[in-house]
Write a structure and sequence with these properties.
36% helix; 22% strand
Length: 193
Amino acid sequence: MRVLVLFAHPCEESFAAALHARAVETLRKAGHEVDDCDLYAEDFQPVLSAAERRAYHDTAKNRAGVVAYVERLQRAEALVIVTPVWNYGFPAILKGFFDRVFLPGVSFNLVDGRVQGALHDITRVVAVTSYGGSRFKAILMGDPPRRVIMRMLRGVVKPFARFRYLAHYSMNLSTDQSRKAFLAKVERTLEHL
């Protein structure tokens, strides 16, 4: 299976980086073809320019600045997103990826004003993330990252695709034991992607 891994964290010593490394290693060991997209290492530019916004609905022009990323997304059969949750949202670089790459004519089509998903080769989506706060606090805040993964992405990939959302909560109180247990959970999940 062709797996696009989207990774969004600037620090190689972070727990997110350990999760990313484990995810890529596990997927490769399981025999998957992995396209490892480290947004910070690739210096992805997350800001949607005025020109890009004006061309957003022009499917002949809208992918001009991100054509290589569009091609990578469209080749994928599975999507694995490894990211922290900061201030109950994604890092800006990942949000910018969604804004600039998940375009009309790429991830969805507008038909009579309604969105129809276009990434029908993607049959599996796994999010691997960490929160500074507890699950309870995330729920109180409405948990926007979970909604993006479980609702927005569900609308653009193959109908009935399999989704998993793996979150390590309370990172501010985490221990070596809790982090090791979460790394093992990620590995078990991705072994059976």
